Amino acid sequence: MTAPRIWLFLGIVNALLAVILAAAGAHGPMAPTTPFLQHILSTASLFHLIHSLAMIQFGLWLAQNPNHYNFTGIFFLTGTVLFVGSLYALVFTTITFPGLLTPIGGALLMLGWITWGLQVAFPSKKQP
């Protein structure tokens, strides 16, 4: 599987998970009962879906620009797992330590946007 297809696939799977987890949080037996947890779930769902779509778009962009690196997708994926995953853990479980991972995940998401912007602004000299 080529790198663009990998990012398309991972983005699609993440988008599916975003919808499933948002539905579980809104309608399931584990739905948050406090406004604070509902806000955390809303934030997690928003960031999950946005970065799922970003992975899909990155895969499409990478297919048209094959001489670029996968750093952006790696940052988006790991950032999503840490940022969104830690928020979901706070909402759906009783453990609180994953909240320590939230800022690391957020920084990785920012790095994803920065690296993509740099790749667009400064075309790569990488050989295909």
TrEMBL record:
Q: How does it sit in the membrane?
A: Multi-pass membrane protein
State whether keyword Phosphoprotein applies. no
Flavoprotein as a keyword? no
| Organism of derivation | Halothiobacillus neapolitanus (strain ATCC 23641 / DSM 15147 / CIP 104769 / NCIMB 8539 / c2) (Thiobacillus neapolitanus)
| A Pfam family matched in the record | DUF423
Q: Where are the transmembrane segments?
A: 7-28, 40-62, 74-95, 101-122
For this protein, the record's InterPro entries field holds:
DUF423
Q: What is its main location?
A: membrane
State where the protein is found: Membrane
Please tell me one Gene Ontology term that the record gives under cellular component.
Answer: membrane
Protein name, please? DUF423 domain-containing protein
